[in-house]
Amino acid sequence: MSVAIFSEAVSGTATSLHDVGAAAAHWHPVLNSVALGDAPQAVQLMGQAVVLWRDAQGQPRAWADRCPHRGARLSLGRVCEGQLECAYHGWRFADTGRCVHVPADPEFVPPASHSAQVFAAQEAYGLVWVRLVDGAHGVPLFAAESDAGLRKVHCGPYDVATSAPRIVENFLDMAHFGFVHEGWLGERGRSVIADYTVQTTATGLLATNCRAWQPQSHAQATQGAMVEYRYEVTAPYAAVLTKVPQAHATAEAAWRESIALFICPVTAESSRVWFRLAVADLDSPDAALQAFQNTIFMQDQPVLESQSPRRLPLDPRAEVHTVADKASAAYRRFLQSAAITFGTC
């Protein structure tokens, strides 16, 4: 992986590939697909200012948000005939990133050096994903997406002033249910976490046999129940939980639910978060399902933003642990072994 200075981030500090580390070779969500229409969109990923736009075939393109001519933001421009036009001098760039037209010198044939910096982009799960450097990793797997019996709903994005790894670790943590989510996902008097199983995987970890008592485990719950959880870390900043409550505790027969967590690491200490729900409820309006998820995450957010440091410590001596934390401890070991340094300390 070469070391090259990125263009200045919105924060005003430059980011290098060395600082970003191995996370740059993974795919990260940056925008809802429906938000990317005819006009260019500015986003930020790992300190890098990125412009998103759609080519003549409607495919998303992601480039450094900097014109190679005089450094203007390409996101201030427009899309013309399948090309991106810079707002400053009207230079036009083909979908390959190559400049193909300079209005001030129309006979000039721009060489390859007159090109925008191009990143890989694709769409999945209703989101636009970007990868800053080449890598062998695919978009994080969400197996429930292919289950035709489950309805898919987006929640978010949520902007959070903490690192992506802190958010993943919170997602894996059941011991906070009775305190942060009291009356919803837990009760103080029933906060004991029984032993569960954690195993390492190629993408992170798998935690099974996880159980927690929950007064209202989901939007359609009719009473409290013991809920079985299964957690899987599917990428450094992505995870999926599947939960099944006791049958008597839900209005829907054979209720099952999977929730994917997808995080854009905007900077090392700030993130944008999406949840992708796959639920057996085919009748409730989207707003009702989203309202439940909003409530839960709004309870998490102030605690997440209070944690110090905002970057996740990987030194096992930096914070103390108990046996209930073994999923998060395994996650920290995975990040270390995978050389994921962005958002960690």
Secondary structure blueprint with pairings:
Elements: H1 17-20, E1 28-32, E2 41-45, E3 48-54, E4 60-64, E5 78-80, E6 83-85, E7 92-93, E8 99-101, E9 118-124, E10 127-131, E11 151-160, H2 164-172, H3 177-180, E12 197-200, E13 205-214, E14 225-235, E15 238-245, E16 257-267, E17 270-279, H4 286-306, H5 326-337
Antiparallel strand pairs: 1-10, 2-3, 3-4, 4-9, 5-6, 6-7, 7-8, 9-10, 11-17, 12-13, 13-14, 14-15, 15-16, 16-17
Radius of gyration: 22 Å
Shape by Cα distribution? elongated
Order of helices and strands: HEEEEEEEEEEEHHEEEEEEHH
Strand percentage: 25-35%
Q: Please report the distance between the alpha carbons of the first and last residues.
A: 21 Å
**Major beta-sheet overview:** 7 strands, antiparallel
Helix % is 10-25%
Global structural class: alpha+beta
Describe the structure.
- This protein has 345 residues and is α+β, with helices and mostly antiparallel strands.
- The chain contains 5 helices and 17 strands.
- It has helices spanning 17-20, 164-172, 177-180, 286-306, 326-337; strands spanning 28-32, 41-45, 48-54, 60-64, 78-80, 83-85, 92-93, 99-101, 118-124, 127-131, 151-160, 197-200, 205-214, 225-235, 238-245, 257-267, 270-279.
- The radius of gyration is 22 Å and the shape is elongated.
- Residues 1-14 and 246-251 have low confidence and may be disordered.
